[in-house]
Amino acid sequence: MGKRLFIGIYLLAQLLGITTVVAQDNIIDRVEWVVGDKCILRSDIEETIRFWLGNGRKFEGDPYCIVGEDLAVQQLFLHQAALDSIEVDETTIMRQVEAQMNMVIQQIGSKEKMEEYFNMNSSEIREMYREQLYNMDMMDRMKKKIVGEVKVSPALVRRFYESLPQDSIPFVQQQVEVQIVTLEPEIDIEEIERVKSELRDYTERITNGETSFSTMALLYSEDPGSARRGGELDFYGRGQLQPEFATVAFGLTDPNKISKIVETEYGFHIMQLIEKRGDRVKVRHILRKPRRSSENIKKMLLTLDSISTDIKAGEITFEKAVELYSADKDTRNNYGIMYNRETASSRFKLDELPVDVARVIDGLSEGDISQPFIWVLENGKTVCAVAKLKARTEAHRATLRDDYETLRYMYQSKLSDERIQEWIKEKQQTTYVRVNKDSRNCDFLYPHWNFYEEK
Questions:
Q1: What CA–CA distance (Å, rounded) separates 61 from 71?
Q2: What is the largest CA-CA distance in the chain?
Q3: Which helix (H) or strand (E) element contains residue 34?
Q4: SS3 call for 90
Q5: What is the pLDDT of residue 25?
Q6: What is the DSSP letter of 325?
Q7: Would the pLDDT of 24 be above 70?
Q8: What's the rounded Cα separation, in Å, for the pair 103 and 356?
Q9: What is the DSSP letter of 173?
Q10: By C-alpha distance, which of 197, 227, 199, 202 is closest to 91?
């Protein structure tokens, strides 16, 4: 969808309100909205409507009006983000893309079934997710900049809670607290040597002039975010990179030389200097990930089964098992308790948990321990785990005593939303906006659009 939104503003006089593509006198597409220098085509609106209908959304009103305005508001944020030079971490986006695709493949059965379901090849699906996640991240960063820091005191939260009508007090969905022990299956030495041998071969071929670093990255790198750009990363400061990667990257001095092989939590890399600019560096890299064998995964699941048996028999506590065995750095020093970054608490709704964890937690009673399971992390690493349902809070009306964090978050969200609404109202008046005349009679959610009129 979004790639069609980047039609230059210099085409407006010719495009607005008339066909953009004509075949045999039939209208195939046309510009419906222009926001800043971005065009929203009728096909963009139709694709989005199909997406929402396919996901069960019911439209109260004309869907062309609702979705058209929604895309226009998104473009207000994206337009301002471009003006403010908001940056998105492409590498992080591509890790999220791969995690999303892996989740879909697991749910649907295979890559081939996924391609059949979307009626796209995997490269097209990857680009679709990349574009969606990129724009979502860009808008999220822009909103955070608009809102700034929202601080609220306990007294203000109490006052907010007491001001709510009884039927407006939030209904807190069922929530769970989860503890987890994870183990990382070993990677065979032969597999590590295979990957290193491949990287040494790439280095030799590049050094001999047989091929270029960019070509080899495009063909072989397993970092999809940079591979599609020939391995090229953005400028990064030392603190933004994995320590091992940063040490090698900042040690490079000759753009014609290839680095030694460096290992990070993502796998093994070689890199090439592009440019240094003050305390920032830009490099190309090739990432190769050694695979964990099914035998080693099975062995780790058996180990976890033994640990789980000891816990259930009372020979060791779950907390002690975390301390002795767990490889998860995020939970190891917190008795294995998983942390919800979205709500800054240890409570999760089931749909907020990683899919692999939610699947095993769903059927447990409070205090139960799951069977060992395989968990594919966001970075693509495969680990084995057992989980314990530490606590389950049944659905209820929020109270200050039990749900202060929920109420604080709700109040902060209200204040943030008010700032966003004011910003949208202002930008509607100051941003160049055109809309097809057929759509100007819509009952818009945001009624302050200042549409540019043709003379």
A1: 16
A2: 83
A3: strand 26-35
A4: helix
A5: 38
A6: H
A7: no
A8: 9
A9: P
A10: 227
**Angstrom distance (rounded) from CA 249 to CA 273:** 7
| Bridge partners (DSSP) listed for residue 91 | none
d(CA 293, CA 187): 7
Provide the residue type at 163 as one letter.
Answer: S
| Burial status of residue 122 (CB atoms within 10 A of its CB: 0-12, 13-18, 19 or more) | middle
CA angle 195, 198, 204 (to 5 degrees): 145
For 133, the enclosing helix (H) or strand (E) is helix 122-147
pLDDT band of residue 343 (cuts 50, 70, 90) is: confident
Angle at CA of residue 123, ends 120 and 128, nearest 5°: 70
Q: Cβ(1)–Cβ(78) under 8 Å?
A: no
pTM assigned to the model: 0.53
DSSP strands (E only) in 197-306:
236-237, 262-264, 267-277, 280-288
Q: Is the pLDDT reported for residue 4 higher than 50?
A: no
Q: Which residues of 237-271 are buried (b: 16+ CB within 10 A; e: fewer)?
A: eeeebeeebbebbbebeeeeebbebbebebbbbbb
Q: Could you tell me how far CA 129 lies from the centroid of its own chain?
A: 9
* Rounded Cα distance, 108 and 177, in Å: 28
Per DSSP, 152 falls in state: -
Reported residue count of the chain is 455
Residue among 17, 33, 56, 4 at smallest CA distance from 446 = 33
* The Cα angle at residue 261 between residues 243 and 247, in degrees rounded to 5: 25
- Distance separating alpha carbons of residues 59 and 49, to the nearest angstrom: 9
